[in-house]
TrEMBL record, chain A:
Full protein name: Branched-chain amino acid ABC transporter permease
Classification via PANTHER family: ABC TRANSPORTER ATP-BINDING PROTEIN, HIGH-AFFINITY BRANCHED-CHAIN AMINO ACID TRANSPORT SYSTEM PERMEASE
Main location: membrane
Membrane topology listed for this record: Multi-pass membrane protein
Pfam families: BPD_transp_2 (PF02653)
Entry-linked InterPro entries: ABC_transp_permease, LivM-like
UniProtKB/TrEMBL annotation, chain B:
Organism encoding this protein: Mesorhizobium temperatum
This protein's name: ABC transporter ATP-binding protein
InterPro entries: AAA+_ATPase, ABC_AA/LPS_Transport, ABC_transporter-like_ATP-bd, BCA_ABC_TP_C, P-loop_NTPase
Record's keyword terms, sorted: ATP-binding, Nucleotide-binding, Transport
Pfam families: ABC_tran, BCA_ABC_TP_C
Annotated CDD domains: ABC_Mj1267_LivG_branched
Cross-referenced Gene3D superfamilies: P-loop containing nucleotide triphosphate hydrolases
Keyword Repressor: no
Keyword ATP-binding: yes
Length: 320, 241
């Protein structure tokens, strides 16, 4: 939150983007695919971090925003035959609208009540998806046909099933959201969000309408999560109700806690870390969830601020 | 001249306790008004009602001719009512600079550049003597400096009415002298409502004094009148010879 070293911060973020770009040419096929998926889900984590990290609102219902984007985009392709950009926009719109409505209702509460209310809304959303099985495919989900997952740009058409196109699309989305988060965090609006997290009462007494500011944050957060969901549907070709289940509300919380709440790069690091811990341990033992659980407990005990949060606290105070 | 602030029959109960009890109060623009009274007299509750931090049980508040009784606190701040907390309430994890930048960035109506925020924020820190501590986390400032930061945040709001709730509590004598000069300067551009236990400070600064006791206004007048008032002697001044 300091005014100092904006150049350093931007250089670091651009550096991370360049590194991810370069990795596309050297990674073996398996890791290449995994990283594309991780980048899309890191966007989900960044959206979650916006609300949890910066405003201090702990939601247990963000799976509904992710799946609003997932189903909004996926069903637009499957049932309406929309093009990829139009379907992506539909996913964003669904997420933004849902976030606005949920925000208006849930922000009447705070703390534990906010957690419970968001979780209940997400559960309702999940049940609605199952109930509307005729359109959503119920618990089986639906496959977005390969033939429809083609991005037409002028005279060239890019098949999103092509690994390189998929990786680069994920990277573009990730980069936009990352730089946007950095800009918001460093902006005056970001300063107000942190002030609300630190002391909402005091922020009101400085003349801020904290409700409106929080509502805007819920909408931004929900829309980013929906962008992740929409990209997931279009790039990986599957929409399913698991993504609306409570598991997918808790995952972004874990990713953000691991990487470091209220750090711009923490969501990527957390998502990356968790994916690889699961990936590596599941190769050795079927009890890999136990190992993941132990890893999480150790991290929370020794790095309560997450990986990047701890690094910032101990060594690099300028990290945004 | 019409008052900047008036309250009519303003009351607030906490359970059975009438913390503020039917207060009729008027404050002229440009005035420095001190509010004194024993602990628990209802001074903080009274100014909290004015600032909108708490809701009245009954009564009415008029600011600059408009009824603000039902306005939320943030809207009153935007009208120009700034409140500094009796219990220091700075953003401990943010730097002193960010603490002041928050009110500054909202009040800037023109020149919304980064430079404008920086200039006004540093100006508010300089007026309170905190400029060289701008990049310290507020929580690491000494208690006295946190009190001054509270005042700087109030100043940065460019208020028309600045409410100071026991600002000198915990300040060293040298800091108090500076503080008196600061309030005099603030009063050139704003009306000041000052709750204060330190009688020398009150006597030096106040144009008029309002004495609270048990939720009611016991007396009001110039410092000389209040000093001479026998009832006030009993209720309050007698306890601090
Ligand atoms: N939120 C609250 N709930 C219950 N009682 C309260 C509350 N706030 C204040 N009171 C009570 O109202 C009365 C007036 O309190 P208030 O803080 O306004 O007094 P004060 O004049 O500011 O005192 P001091 O000089 O100690 O700051 C006290 O008896 C106090 O205990
Ligand atoms: Mg008080």
């Amino acid at each position: 939150m300091k005014e100092a070293s904006p150049a350093k911060a931007y250089a670091l973020h651009v550096g991370v983007i360049v590194l991810l770009f370069a990795l596309s040419f050297v990674l073996p096929e398996y890791h290449h695919g995994l990283l594309a998926r991780i980048m899309v889900l890191a966007v989900f984590a960044m959206g979650y971090n916006m609300l949890f990290g910066y405003v201090g609102l702990l939601s247990l219902g963000h799976a509904m925003f992710f799946s609003a984007g997932l189903y909004g985009a996926g069903l637009a392709v499957i049932h309406l035959g929309w093009s990829v950009p139009a379907a992506f926009a539909a996913g964003l719109a669904c997420g933004a609208l849902l976030a606005l409505v949920i925000g208006l209702l849930a922000l009447r509460t705070s703390g534990v009540a906010f957690m419970i209310v968001t979780m209940m809304f997400a559960q309702v959303f999940y049940l609605i998806i199952l109930y509307l099985a005729a359109w959503t495919g119920g618990d089986q989900g639906l496959v977005v046909p390969q033939s429809a997952r083609v991005l037409v740009l002028g005279s060239t058409s890019l098949g999103l099933t092509n690994p390189t196109v998929r990786y680069m699309s994920a990277l573009v989305l990730f980069s936009i959201v990352l730089l946007m988060t950095l800009a918001v965090v460093r902006s005056r609006y970001g300063r107000v969000l942190v002030a609300i997290r630190e002391n909402e009462e005091r922020t009101k007494m400085l003349g801020y309408d904290t409700f409106s500011n929080k509502l805007a944050a819920v909408v931004v957060s929900g829309t980013i999560c929906a962008a992740s969901g929409a990209a997931y549907a279009l790039l990986f070709g599957y929409v399913g109700s698991t993504f609306a289940s409570v598991q997918y509300s808790i995952l972004p919380l874990l990713w953000v806690l691991l990487g470091g709440a209220a750090t711009t790069l923490g969501p990527l690091i957390g998502t990356l870390f968790m994916y690889y811990v699961v990936d590596i341990t599941s190769g050795y033992t079927s009890a890999y969830l136990l190992i993941v659980g132990i890893a999480l407990i150790l991290l929370v005990l020794f790095f309560p601020k997450g990986i990047l949060g701890t690094i910032r606290q101990r060594w690099l105070g300028w990290l945004p | 001249m019409t008052p900047l602030l008036t309250t009519k029959g303003l009351s607030r109960n906490f359970g059975g306790l009438r913390a503020v009890d039917g207060v009729d109060f008027a404050l002229m623009p440009g005035e420095i008004r001190a509010v004194i009274g024993p602990n628990g007299a209802g001074k903080t509750t009274f100014v909290s009602l004015v600032s909108g931090r708490i809701q009245p049980s009954s009564g009415m508040i008029v600011f600059d001719g408009a009824d603000i009784t039902n306005l939320p606190a943030y809207a009153r701040v935007r009208l120009g009512i700034a409140y500094t907390f009796q219990i220091t309430s700075v953003f401990a994890n943010l730097t002193a600079y960010d603490n002041v930048a928050l009110p500054v960035q909202r009040t800037l109506t023109d020149g919304r550049s980064k430079g404008a925020v920086h200039a006004s924020a540093m100006a508010a820190l300089e007026r309170t003597g905190l400029a060289d501590r701008a990049h310290m986390p507020a929580g690491q400032l000494s208690y006295g400096h946190q009190r001054l930061l509270e005042v700087a945040m109030g100043l940065a709001l460019k208020p028309r009415l600045l409410i100071l709730d026991e600002p000198t509590q915990g300040l060293a004598d040298s800091e108090i002298d500076n503080f008196i000069g600061l309030v005099r300067e603030i009063a050139k551009s704003a009306t000041v409502l000052l709750i204060e236990h330190n009688m020398p400070v009150v006597m030096q600064l106040a144009d008029r004094i309002t004495v609270f006791n048990a939720g009611k206004i016991l007396a009001e007048g110039t410092p000389e009148q209040v000093r001479a008032n026998a009832e006030v002697q009993d209720a309050y001044l007698g306890t601090t010879p």
